[in-house]
């Protein structure tokens, strides 16, 4: 999985058809679509992707949290 996981930003409003055929809509002028599947409001991003711990390799300290 790529390290910089985050939403895809789209100009709204949008209509998203899920795998089961359910349709979700968002009327906002800018819409963030979840790519990590951690969102409680999937398919829309709720910033849950930020709660992921960074890997210890690559200069970060083990257990350091992503605070973006
Ligand atoms: S991309 Fe933000 S919660 Fe999944």
UniProtKB/TrEMBL annotation:
Record bears the keyword Metal-binding: yes
Keywords for this protein: 2Fe-2S, Iron, Iron-sulfur, Metal-binding
Domain Iron-binding zinc finger CDGSH type per the UniProt entry, residue ranges: 11-55
Region (Disordered): 47-68
Pfam families: zf-CDGSH
One CC-aspect GO term: cytoplasm
Gene Ontology MF annotations: 2 iron, 2 sulfur cluster binding; metal ion binding
The protein's name: CDGSH iron-sulfur domain-containing protein
Species: Actinospica durhamensis
């Amino acid at each position: 999985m790529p390290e910089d996981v985050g939403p895809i930003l789209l100009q709204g409003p949008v209509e998203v058809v899920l795998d089961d055929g359910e349709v979700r809509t968002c009327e906002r002028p800018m819409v963030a679509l979840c790519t990590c599947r951690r969102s409680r409001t999937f398919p829309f991003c709720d910033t849950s992707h930020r709660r992921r711990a960074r890997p210890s390799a690559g200069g970060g300290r083990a257990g350091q949290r992503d605070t973006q």
